[in-house]
Amino acid sequence: MDLGAVTDDDVEAVGQLLAASFVDDPGPVWWWPEPEVRAEFAPQLFAAVTRLALARGDGLLTAAGDAVGLYLPPGTRITEDDVARAGLAELMGILDAQTAENIGRFLATLGELHTGAMPEPHWQLYFVGVHPAAQGKGRGVALVDEVNNRAKRDGVGVYLDTLTERNVAFFEHHGYRVVAEADIADSDVHVWGMRFN
Fold first, then answer.
1. What is the DSSP string of 63-95?
2. Is the overall model pTM greater than 0.85, yes or no?
3. Average pLDDT in the 167-181 region?
4. How many Cβ atoms sit within 10 Å of the Cβ of residue 185?
5. Around Cβ 161, how many Cβ atoms within 10 Å?
6. Bridging pattern class, strands 176-183 and 190-196
7. Rounded to whole angstroms, how far apart are CA atoms 80 and 78?
8. Are residues 4 and 63 in contact, defined by beta-carbon separation less than 8 angstroms?
9. Cα–Cα distance for residue pair 141/157, rounded to 1 Å
10. Residue 6: phi, psi to the nearest 5?
């Protein structure tokens, strides 16, 4: 499969791609229940997430632009400055207070789960997204294999989190296992922390 490095020039397109890939994901659906509001804000959120990934890691994008993987290497620490430079703090400032609080609580829970489940150095599969029209064609598998191979090369594991049982089954099929779970307070969102190796 033809994969190329995600660059700064790809950020907005990757934001759109991830928004399409996660259009029905429990997180964005909780934050923005109305589809038109989600269509406005989710691409901005995912563009900021992509900038954050590129600041501390890297990513790969298919030549067709229909699948992307974002990876953070062992020892990555995301700082408040990173968050600000990525535009995430600015976005949170324009959201309504309840949505910003929900996203903040979500991110804090994921951070605590991640730290508790895998304190040793490891790769993180930060995001993998495949456009709905391109799913089932091996693109996601190739992007997951990439981070798994990096981890094997480095003699470390991989961590990811996911919000759907369907994704849990997909990752289990590719060598991951559930190592932590949590409910996001005051929501119907459940998160599974998974590791490879």
1. TTSSEEEEEE-TT----HHHHHHHTHHHHHHHS
2. yes
3. 97
4. 11
5. 21
6. antiparallel
7. 7
8. yes
9. 17
10. -75, 130
pLDDT digits (tens, 9 = 90+) for 14-39: 999 999 999 999 999 999 999 999 99
What are the structure tokens assigned to 145, written together?
Answer: 């294999």
- Outline where 22-133 has alpha helix (H): 26-31, 35-56, 80-86, 88-94, 97-117
CA 172 to chain centre: 17
According to DSSP, the β-strands at 122-130 and 157-162 are: parallel
Instruction: Tell me: pLDDT of 1 over 80.
Output: no
Q: Determine which helix (DSSP H) or strand (DSSP E) holds 125, and give its type and residue range.
A: strand 122-130
DSSP 10: G
Q: Is the CA virtual torsion 18, 24, 30, 32 positive or negative?
A: positive
Q: What is the pLDDT of residues 129-153, one digit of tens each?
A: 999 999 999 999 999 999 999 999 9
- Angle, helices 11-21 vs 35-56, to 10°: value is 130
